[in-house]
Each structure stands twice: as C-alpha cells, then as structure tokens.
Specification:
Order of helices and strands: EEHHEEEEE
Number of helices: 2
Number of domains: 1
CATH architecture: Roll
Structural class: alpha+beta
Shape: elongated
CATH topology: Structural Genomics Hypothetical 15.5 Kd Protein In mrcA-pckA Intergenic Region, Chain A
Strand order of the largest sheet: 1-7-6-3-4
Length: about 80
C-alpha cells in the first residue's frame, strides 16, 4: 500500500476536496464520484458522504493508497520582552 501524508491547515477538509488536494483525482467532481461509488474508506469504514469532514488523525483509503491526515504544526512565535 502506498502512503501519503496530508498536512491539514484548518480544522477539517471535505473528503472530496482532500482527494483532489492529495492528487488522487483532478477535480472535486471526480472525488465526489469515487465517494458516491463506495470506493473510499475513512478509518476503515466505507464513507458515502462526499463532503464528510476529515480531521487530523484520520486515515482515508482508496484502492492501494492510504492518506494519513496530520495537523500542520505552527512554528513557535518569538517571545517578546
């Protein structure tokens, strides 16, 4: 299985958008079609909601691809005195 790590910049991303941003499909519409066809799993369960909110810590799989969603780290702000 091929692993991809996706760094999440906000609180969540829609499943169809994640598929596009991770390079699985070329458009959100193609992502929606994959989800509607029952080909996408989230945390091991088939996901039928095209705009399901995917959060850090979740794993999305499609065929032999596993997308691990991680929270983007924010660099420490300098301390002012």
């Amino acid at each position: 299985m091929r692993d991809v790590e996706f760094m999440l910049s906000g609180a969540h991303v829609a499943l169809c958008d994640l598929l596009k941003l991770a390079g699985v499909v070329h458009s959100g519409g193609q992502g929606k079609a994959l989800v509607a066809a029952g080909e996408v799993h989230v945390d091991g369960s088939r996901e039928g909601r095209k705009t399901a909110k995917i959060r850090a810590g979740q794993v999305v799989t499609w065929r032999d691809l596993r997308i691990r969603v991680r929270a983007a780290t924010v660099p420490d702000a300098p301390v002012s005195e």
